[in-house]
Amino acid sequence: MATLKNPTMFRKLNNIDTAFRHVRTFTLLTVLASAGVTAFALYKSFATVNRLQDKIYVLADGKAIEAYASDRRDNIQVEGRDHVRNFHQNFFTLDPDEKVIRQNVSKALYLADNTAKAVYDDLRENGYYAGIISGNISQEIIIDSIRVDIGSYPYHFRCYAIQQIVRPTTTVTRLLVTEGNLRNVSRSDNNPHGFLIERWRTVDNRDLKIENRN
Questions:
Q1: Separation CA 79–CA 88 (nearest Å)
Q2: Same domain, yes or no: 21 and 116
Q3: I need a labelling partner for 155 at 20 to 30 A (CA). Which of 57, 137, 181, 197 fits?
C-alpha cells in the first residue's frame, strides 16, 4: 500500500516549528533583557538611596547647606573639641545682665555633669554673678587650644584659654586651663554632639596682666 506524501504540508509544519523556535528565542531574550534592566534599575535605586542617606542638610541663616554623614569614630576629635569649646564659651561669656547670664549658663550645664553645676552654685552663692551685674563687668573667653585623648574611654580633654574681664576702669587678662572627661550620651537639641563633660575642674586660673582703660 503506497504512502501519500504532501510536501506542502511538511513545509508548513517546518515553517510553524521554525517560527515557534524564533518566537521562543525572542521571548527568552526579551525576558532576560527585562530582568537585566530591572536588576540594574534596582541596583541604581539602592545606590541612590544609600548616597542620599549619607547626606545631611544643615539649616543655617535660612539656607539648607549640604553635608555628609560619617562614622562617629571618625569625628570624635572634631566633635569633642567643639563640645568643649561650646561649653566654655557659654559658661564663661558673661555680661552685666541677669537674663544673659542665666541663658548662657543654662546652655553650658546641658553639656556637663554636676561638677559644672557645683562650680556654678559656688560662684552664685559667693556673689560672683551679682558682682558682675552691679559692677557693669563683662567677661569673655578666647579658646587657645583643646586636646582630646581618644586613646581610652571616657575621653580625657584639656582646654587652654584666655579670659578677659572688662571692668569700668581696667581690663584683666587671665590664663584659664581646665580638664575633664567626655562621655557619650544621646544627641539632642540641647546637646547636638552627644557628649557629656564629667569631672570638670580648673587646673590653672591666674592673672596675666591688668591694663587701665582710658
A1: 14
A2: no
A3: 57
Q: Identity (one letter) of the amino acid at 28? A: L
Task: For residue 214, give the DSSP letter.
Answer: -
Q: Which of 181, 128, 99 is nearest to 119 (CA)?
A: 128
Q: Could you report the per-residue pLDDT of 95-134, keeping only the tens digit for each?
A: 999 999 999 999 999 999 999 999 999 999 999 999 999 9
Asked if residue 154 belongs to a domain, the reply is yes
Q: Burial-class residue 33 by CB neighbours within 10 Å (0-12, 13-18, 19+).
A: exposed
C-alpha dist (Å) from residue 195 to 81, 144, 181 = 10, 21, 9
Pair type for strands 63-68 and 138-149: unpaired
CA atoms within 13 A on the CB side of 39: 6
φ, ψ for residue 61 (rounded to 5)? Answer: 55, 40
What is the number of structural domains in the chain?
Answer: 2
Q: Grid coordinates in use for 36?
A: 537585566
Name the more confident of 19 and 206. 206
Give the number of C-alpha atoms closer than 13 A to the C-alpha of residue 140, restricted to the C-beta side. Answer: 4
- Full residue range of the structural domain in which residue 147 is found: 72-212
Q: Out of 69, 88, 114, pick the residue that ends a domain.
A: 69
